[in-house]
Amino acid sequence: MGIAQGVKRTLMPIYSGLKHVFLKPYTVKWPYEKVPNLPDEGYRFDPKAGIGYPGSKGRHMLYMEKCTGCGSCDLACQNIAEAITMTYGFDVVIVMDEKCYEHFKASTPEIVGALDAIVSSFSAEPSYIQYNSLSSFFWTPTDIRQVIKIEGGYEIKLNLEPIFDARAVEILYQKVYTAVEKLRTAGWELRKHEAATESASVELSKHDFTVKVLVRKIDMGYKQNKRSLFPSVDYGRCVMCGFCVDACPFQALEMTSEFEISAISRRELVYTPNMLAKRPEELNVTGVPPELNVIERTRMVFRRLVW
Amino acid sequence: MAREEVKSLEVYEGGPALTFSMGPQHPGTGHFRMILTVVGDVVVRCDPDPGFVHRGEEKMCEYKTWITNIPHLERPAILDSAGMTYPYVLAVERLMGVEPPERAKYLRVIMAELQRICSHLYWLGLMGVFAGHATMYMWCFGDREYLVDLTQLIGGQRITHSYFVPGGVRNDAPVNVPKELMKDFRRYYRMMLGKDYPGGEVPEDFRKYALAVCDFFDTRLDEYYPMLLDSSIFIYRTKSIGVLKKEDAVSLGVVGPVLRGSGVKSDTRIDEPYDAYPYIKFNVPTMEGCDSYSRMMVGYYEMKESVRIIKQAIEQMPEGPVKLKQHPVTIRVPAGEVFASAEAARGQCSIYIRSDGTDRPYRVKICSPSFRNIIAIPHLIREVRIADVPIIYWSLNYWPVECDR
């Protein structure tokens, strides 16, 4: 009995393992193949019925035409992860008067140097990062030779897409102050400094030139959201619990099934309202990596067809 | 701790003794250290040193509101987040004096049992690795995937789903299962069992799909038995290793599979039934062996019972609302104090709450199962060989984060 049992206990594991030798392997080659086991729908919440709809809790989806900027999602998140911040969209412009512009066209070294310093500090990595600050990591530079005529002067717009932040002055601190410090050592004088939530500016002058850097709020033009205040989500902090979706009384916030939120730097994980307003497939952050060559792609397709 | 000097030689009775640390880099579960004193190959003393993953959950509860406590309360045991939030939700409901709708009770039971199986599979798989059996690890994690998918279909997340709230659950179960998942399950079924899914098509209806996964998992559990639990390697490694006698288990106050592995039939689901457990028939498996093997077998049989519970709950689940009408984020809880306990995967998890009528708790005391079981570590790891230490440690299913809270 003892021997028989011992033999059985030794051979049975080998037998049950051997059965699997002849079966086809199962491995899903992620990210080349997608993991199929996700519900397509994201988690939603019906505020009238007070109940959620089942779905994946992945990255958020913001409907900007429904969002009123009430900040309920921000309040709900404050006790959980502090991932959501209500943000305005900003433009950063350099404003010059007529005389400065004439000198700019004539390449006067002071003016050109000042503009160069401002633009280069704006495009460089921010020297100073406020803790939990939300300035967009991605921004598209404009052609700065494009000078727009405004009342009593000219302006140069530095960014193509809006920069989102909770406070305007934060953008000045992070993106412009390196240039301001540099210019002050070069003899420029800091004349005026405005640091408000919705707009901020610095005015620099030397001799009788005056250059102004202005951060001004963009009006997004939504009727229900006069202040143009929208949530930004920091996915370095978000725990995907979905209580912000529950808290939204206008069904403006939903979740999608996208979960592959990865980035090289922590600041890239901050999703601006414009990014949240796009569906995952539009934003194109996931999908088959472009470095995959044709043969590998074909093999993947073939493998799927066979099974 | 005064015994910081690692690897210091001292003369112990019977020969020179060596003191060294096992951990804190992952002796298996998480950051936890055991300070072992050995003479030759024999451990004469074990001094557990928890606290590497202390997060201050209890203090954090005092700063967050009643609902926003839920996401962080599941963090101590993410494999078993339902078990950790269950007592909290029950306690808050008792304070509020409300009863969740019937359907919510069944959904909670399904979720809690799914998470119990997932947690136990993790336990079984890692136990296999520690006993030198890597196949078990792969099998457990492969099969766990489909149970985790069920969790995700209901709760939206694989593990930390924040699904339970005071007054019910956050959303109903879905009606249909995604087509891709059905296809994938069919493929996995064929790969694992070597035959096609009976009847050809995997059901699209959620209830039927869940039952199909349960049936499949039950079949797989039968295959685990000859593979690991009845194999001679595993039996030689675990039989009569780490014997925790019945009277010791009771006097030390251990809970869960450790207590039941010592032959004491104690289970919160039976002793103080809550939610839908009174309406469901199931056994509480116990083993009389009192050793590591018995504890593991209790975990194995508990998975079988959980499958039974899920099947019954899915069949008995009535239609209706799943949540009380209330504000989704801000709820009002009257002043008072309350104590509630629920059976988490690792044993009884209890929570004591004191409320002063504001929007957040005045005090929350968590008594987690691993906190109750850590006392068995110095008791069991004594006069054993070093090679048996991981086996005994794992047979307790100790989870450092849950203990440190």
Describe, in plain words, how this protein is organized in 3D.
The complex is a heterodimer of chains A (307) and B (405). By secondary structure, chain A is α+β, with helices and mostly antiparallel strands. In chain A, 30% of the residues lie in helices and 22% in strands. Chain A is built from 9 helices and 13 strands. In chain A, strands 4, 5, 6, 7, 8, 9, 10, 11 and 13 form a 9-stranded antiparallel β-sheet that branches. A two-stranded antiparallel ribbon of chain A has the order 1-2. Chain B contains 16 helices and 10 strands. The radius of gyration of chain B is 22 Å and the shape is globular. In chain B, the strands form 3 sheets. A 5-stranded antiparallel β-sheet of chain B has the order 1-2-3-4-10. Chain B has a 3-stranded antiparallel β-sheet with strand order 7-8-9. In chain B, a hairpin with a 7-residue loop joins strand 8 (347-355) and strand 9 (363-367). Helix content of chain B is 46%, strand content 14%. Chain B has helices at 57-61, 69-73, 81-96, 102-130, 134-155, 179-193, 206-229, 232-238, 246-252, 257-260, 268-271, 292-316, 369-373, 376-380, 389-395, 400-404; strands at 8-12, 15-22, 33-39, 42-49, 164-165, 168-169, 336-344, 347-355, 363-367, 384-385. Chains A and B meet through helix 1, strand 2, helix 2 and helix 6 of A and helix 2, helix 5, helix 6, helix 7 and helix 8 of B.
